[in-house]
Each structure stands twice: as structure tokens, then as C-alpha cells.
Amino acid sequence: MTDNTSLMVGRTVLITGGTGGIGRATAEGLARLGARVAITGRDLKRAKAAAAEIGTATGNPAIDAYAADLSSQAEVRRLAGALLAAYPRLDVLVNNVGGYWAHRHVTADGLERTFALNCLAPFLLTNLLLDRLLASTPARIVTVSSGAQAMGRIDFDDLQGERGYSGQRAYNQSKLANVMFTYELARRLAGTGVTATVLHPGVVRTAFGAEDQPAFFAVMSKVVRPFMKTPAQGAETPIHLASSPEVEGLTGRYFANRKPRSSNKASYDRTATARLWQVSADLTGLAHDMSTSSKHHQPS
């Protein structure tokens, strides 16, 4: 990370899930670099409190709070509308929000929650904000995945875990989907000045998965907790990808510890990434304004 405290002055950054954990640490890091930072959380009171605390801690008062349950597509669309109304430019989008559930839950849209929140929410939000990002070039889209992507497999015949649900399998699949989304997005945005990267933040001490976790997970967490990264350490790679001149123009890559790494072999299957994109577009009801016949985005 650079020590240049004016690196992000004049730039606007959106971080989903910015009220705690890696998202909040990322917000703090980018605020220290001078960015105007918008964070989202499910509860407006908590989001506003986090924004105020980030402002105080960093000496940067330009921290805005938005509330949205991103597992709901209506909420994603409402959030996007509010952001487009508030910000004439958007330089960086950090898709950080994610979750893990040991048991199968269904969202307001009738979708399995892990897939809805971890895969479809960033897909839909990114696409809804894409024209603003394109108008703000050079711009960056940074998506937080996980090392779990290495164990992931996309089951196109049972994406929603209806036949047999495993929390870990659903999570692994969703994190692989984040990588595939990023690679497909990078291809579609080639030459536009908007880059897309994806990362593994490391195993971080957060309240992740606390809503519905298997009992062994709680026990194991206590054992390995001292060896986990702090949220600030976990935020180093997303901050780097959001701000560093070193990665300017770099797109379609997976990072860990601020270095490019290889991802799951399946993520390089262009037929599968294009198929996942189409399935995501169908499940979100997204107007097909990104031509599947062209790698370039055609702004509407």
C-alpha cells in the first residue's frame, strides 16, 4: 500500500458491506487516501454509525451510508438508483458483501440466499452502475472472492442447491462464480478504460457466517482465530486493487496478497463464464444491453 494520502482525492468509491470486517477496513483505508467513500449495510442506523466512525478515525468526513439488503433484487435496484442520483461520477466499485449459511434459505425473489447475495447481487449492481463507471474512466471494479473458489464447482443443473444443499458447497460455488464473473466482465469491458479484478483477502477474523454456521465452524474458529488475519490485513489487497497506480489498466486477474495468482481451472473456461453470465442476466431480469456477440460494452 502506498503512503500517499492524496492518492484518491477527487475519486468516489462504493463499497458494499462496508459496516464491518474487511469492507469497513477497506473503507477506512481508501478514506485515508482521500476518497469520498459510500458504504452499504442492511441497517441504516448501523451504516450511519460506521460511516461517522470511519470519518472520525480517518479525518475524512466524506463518508456516506446507504442501507440495502442486497439479497433482494428490488433493494439492489433501489440502491443503484440512489447512488446514480447522488454521484455524478463513480471511480471504483468494490463488490465486498457476501455471506455463508449452513442451511438453505430462500430470498424474497425465491432464490437460494448464498447464490443471490454472493453472485447475483454484485452482477446486478455492477451492471446497473456500469454506464456511470464507463463515464468516469479510468474506473475499477474490484470483487472480493475467497480462496474457497479453488474448491468450487458450478453446477448449472442445480445452481440453487435445491436437490441437496451444503453450505460449504454453495459458498465455494459462489466464490468461483465471482472469479468467472470478473473474467467475463473484463472481456466485455476490454478497451473501455474500466478494469475488473477479483481477489482472495486471506482468512480474516470477522463475524462472517455468524447468522447460521455449523457448530464445528464455531469451535474451529476459536482454535484458528489467533492465526487469522485482522480485517485491516484482509483489506490490503482490495485497497491495493482499488487505488494503486501499479495495477492501473490491469484487468481480468485474480489476486492474493496483492499479487496476481492462478485461479480455479474452471474459471478459465470461456464457454462456462459466458453461460454463467447469461444465467445471471436471466435470473436478475437484466435488460440485455451488453451484447453477447461483442466483447465490448455498448453504452445505451
From TrEMBL:
This is NAD(P)-dependent dehydrogenase (Short-subunit alcohol dehydrogenase family). It comes from Micromonospora purpureochromogenes. It holds the Pfam family adh_short. Keywords: Oxidoreductase. Signal peptide: none annotated. The keyword Transcription regulation does not apply. InterPro entries: KR_dom, NAD(P)-bd_dom_sf, SDR_fam. It comes from the Bacteria. Residues 11-207 form the Ketoreductase domain. The keyword Transmembrane does not apply.
